[in-house]
Specification:
810 residues; alpha/beta; nine-stranded mixed sheet
């Protein structure tokens, strides 16, 4: 049975829990990623002739499992990894994590238990990767990326620099131009490759016939090992990753037979260390820095990295490089280099990113797109200011799907958007800005100043200019302005409805009501296109291609819809895809629509204290693809309605009981039946009713409470029985679902309903934006300054009067 990505990720993270405590995530990541690698290559290539990886006798995951419980488990695992490394020339790559390290993994029985638990998780909770075929091997590659991202998050600022956020990696891959590469034998390079994510994102979108060869260099040998494993897990086992060498003192890629000449590549994607202060250590020049006006500063390597990349490109080569914003405007030697790059036409574009995206630093960064092809004919630079497009994600900022798409589409199509992007001609760069490329000089991306009207504050009324600032809404709903505002005096309006009636006025407007139909029609058009594609999912479907097609169609459908940003519609689809739908589609690709009939059972492991025997106890279940709530909704609505009615009766009885307790007088008999926790003591209640001589009023009160308790208990038991019966019916119904019912449940009730909810939120947000601005203006100009002064004077007079009566006035 296929595994969900989310389940695989959960299992991987559970394996991390078994190692926490003895080391931090910057260390235990090496153990987890190494085991993931061994498990994957063993599943895929053991017993396979001429496979990408040779799994030798005594060098596979099964051999590790045989060590569970063994007192020499750590030593044995190291030997198995050594055999695998030796057979594949992976010494120094996959054997950097030492499983026999007592300082990190504990000594004696502690190590045995810890490693046995770790191996058991990989055995019991991981799938057989040889059976994974959805979208190539992306499920395991994506799992590796998931771990890298989480390790980077846990490692923090000092140790998370090995990982570039996936969203940024995708931007570089898209803007560098590799997806339009022609011919075969294309070369791709990263001289500071970290874990290899930039290289892999780029090769992923290259044309299949480009036959891209990957070349990476990474100074940290352990991180280079991560990159090498990453390439294998992404089905790029022929990639060359050179580890343990500095790009400046010992660049590993040089022309054969040409001493001192760097090798040239077609494409490069790079996220080098920011402001590298040690770049000159052991420096060998290779003519990388000549002819650019000056040499990079000794204590800042940003331009040193950039010039190395430019030197490493073929005559028509292209690169996308992440650098701190300072490269755009810093002076002295860097200004001279920047001027030379502009003069040569090497900078095709600049993309300003939000601050705090990266794990190694919180400073804002930019992407410089370098293109040697037709550089001498380039007459300007295309700039994007995307610095405000992000969401908060913990203590970092993160680009959304809409942000990635907007950046890459606007850049590649050179779309000029107000306050976001424009082509800046050379004369503006040279003559007006002296080659200072700081993006705010060219794109004013800030919000317009919300000016206050002194006249409005003094004499009342909402400035007509402020009302007119909502013109995009009045254009869409021409009559709405007249319903919300009325003339007050020249140049000023007043609210025509009560402050609490603004939202009702908006939703009551006929044109706004018709607008809902426009949004609905756009969604219905997209749904009609998507429905056929989703019903045709098969083993040949490529999920990543499928979502690209669906996303392009939703963008096209919402392009003409006023007031709804098409990128927000895109985000509504993509966020649901990433959270839920992607998992569902991968399961369908691997298991077919039969997966919709599947259920998953949840267990809790219990242990007999006397015998130490472990047993699994069922704790619940749900549909594997379709939640049981949807099956109940479609087939057992009557049964669910009966349960809801009983629960409503219980809630009413409980409320009546609680009200009687809360309203009881101090001398009420009710206090005699309450325990220390303030709740009814049933034993005390029964005892008093059976033995005490009560007056009629007290007797009636206690018997009323007793009756309520009996009703609550009876109805609670009825609900429990009804739920058990419904649960049994629902569970049995899954296997009886026909194909039509399966598709209706998954497509209509699950997928389309969820996406529709996201689109509806965009429609509702339009009314919120109008109402919030109207409320803000009304609040701002609701009282004039003279009226406030008069109110203050009146209050002051009252205070003086009180003081005089109290004898304090002079």
């Amino acid at each position: 049975m296929a595994v969900k990505k989310s389940e695989l990720y959960s299992s991987l993270w559970a394996s991390c829990d078994s190692l926490r405590g003895g080391m931090d995530s910057s260390q235990y990541k090496d153990y987890i990623l190494t085991l993931l690698f061994v498990k994957y290559v063993s599943d895929k290539f053991k017993g396979v002739d001429y496979g990408d990886i040779d799994v030798p006798e005594g060098g596979g995951f099964d051999d590790m499992l045989a060590l569970i419980g063994s007192k020499n488990i750590g030593e044995g695992m190291d030997k198995i990894i050594a055999r695998l490394a030796e057979a594949n020339n992976l010494r120094g790559v996959i054997d950097n994590a030492h499983f026999n390290d007592g300082d990190k993994l504990g000594k004696g029985l502690e190590m045995v238990d810890k490693l046995s638990e770790l191996l058991s998780i990989f055995r019991d909770q991981m799938p057989d990767f040889s059976k994974n075929h959805a979208d190539g091997d992306d499920i395991i590659g994506d799992a590796y990326e998931y771990l890298m991202r989480n390790f980077a998050t846990e490692s923090g600022k000092s140790k998370g620099q090995f990982y570039t956020p996936a969203e940024v990696s995708r931007i570089l891959a898209k803007v560098v131009g590799i997806e339009h590469a022609t011919g075969s034998g294309v070369t791709l390079y990263d001289p500071a490759c970290g874990s290899g994510s930039l290289l892999l994102r780029a090769v992923e979108i290259a044309p299949a016939n480009a036959r891209v060869s990957i070349y990476g260099q990474e100074k940290d040998i352990t991180t280079a090992g991560l990159a090498r494993m990453n390439t294998v897990l992404h089905n790029q086992s022929t990639a060359e990753i050179k580890g343990g060498y500095s790009t400046f003192s010992d660049p590993q890629y040089k022309h054969e037979g040409l001493d001192g000449v760097l090798r040239k590549f077609d494409f490069a994607v790079v996220n080098p260390p920011f402001s590298d202060k040690n770049w000159t250590h052991g420096l060998k020049d290779y003519d990388r820095f000549d002819g650019y006006g000056d040499r990079p500063p000794q204590k800042n390597g940003d331009f040193a990295w950039l010039l190395h990349i430019i030197k490493s490109l073929k005559p028509n080569g292209k690169a996308a490089v992440i650098l701190p914003h300072g490269v755009l405007f810093r002076g002295n030697a860097e200004a001279a280099i920047r001027q030379s790059l502009i003069d040569r036409g090497l900078i095709k574009g600049i993309i300003g990113l939000p601050a705090n995206l990266f794990y190694g630093t919180g400073i804002p960064a930019c992407i410089l797109v370098i293109d040697k092809e037709n550089a001498d004919e380039r007459d300007g630079i295309f700039m994007i200011d995307a610095s405000r497009d992000f969401i908060k994600d913990g203590n970092k900022n993160r680009l959304r799907e809409r942000d990635v798409y907007k950046i890459t589409t606007v850049f590649n199509q050179r779309i000029e958007l107000q306050k976001y992007s424009r082509f800046v001609p050379d004369d503006e760069i040279w003559e007006k800005n002296a080659c200072n490329l700081n993006i705010p000089r060219y794109i004013d991306g800030g919000e317009a100043e919300d000016a206050q009207s002194i006249d409005g504050h003094l004499n009342g009324g909402i400035p007509a200019a402020d009302v007119e600032s909502l013109s995009r809404y009045w254009q869409a709903f021409p009559n709405l302005r007249g319903q919300l505002f009325a003339p007050f005096r020249e140049g000023f309006d007043a609210l025509a409805v009560g402050k609490d009636e603004v939202r009702d006025a908006i939703f009551g407007d006929a044109e706004f009501a018709a607008y809902a139909g426009t949004v609905e029609a756009a969604f219905a058009q997209w749904k009609a296109h998507a429905d056929g594609k989703l019903r045709a999912i098969s083993g040949a479907t490529r999920p990543k291609r499928l979502i690209v097609e669906l996303a392009e169609e939703i963008l096209g459908g919402f392009e003409p819809v006023a007031l709804v940003d098409k990128y927000d519609a895109y985000e509504a689809l993509l966020s649901y895809w990433n959270e839920t739908m992607s998992d569902d589609v991968y399961l369908l690709v691997q298991d077919g629509y039969e997966a919709i009939r599947g259920i998953e059972v949840f267990y809790k492991e219990t242990e007999n204290r006397k015998t130490a025997e472990k047993k699994k106890k069922e704790t619940g279940w749900d549909g594997r693809l379709v939640p049981k709530s949807l099956v109940i909704e479609k087939f057992f609505a009557t049964e669910q309605k009966a349960i809801d009615a009983k629960e409503a009766d219980i809630a009413a009885a409980q409320a009546e009981r609680d009200e009687m307790i809360e309203n009881a007088e101090e001398d009420s008999v009710i206090h005699s039946i309450l325990g220390e926790n303030g709740k009814i003591d049933k034993k005390a209640l029964n005892h008093i009713l059976q033995t005490a001589l009560l007056g009629k009023e007290d007797n009636d009160v206690l018997r009323a409470i007793h009756k309520l308790l009996l009703k609550i208990e009876k109805d609670a038991k009825a609900v429990k029985d009804l739920r058990a019966a419904l649960d049994e019916k629902t569970r049995a119904r899954y296997s009886q679902l026909d194909d039509k019912e399966c598709l209706e449940l998954l497509l209509e009730r699950k997928w389309f309903r969820a996406i529709r909810s996201g689109i509806d939120a965009l429609y509702t947000a339009v009314s919120h934006r109008i109402a919030e601005r109207v409320a803000e203006l009304t609040e701002r100009y609701g009282q004039t300054l003279p009226a406030l002064e008069s109110e203050v004077a009146g209050l002051e007079g009252k205070v003086k009067s009180h003081l005089k009566k109290m004898g304090f006035a002079g």
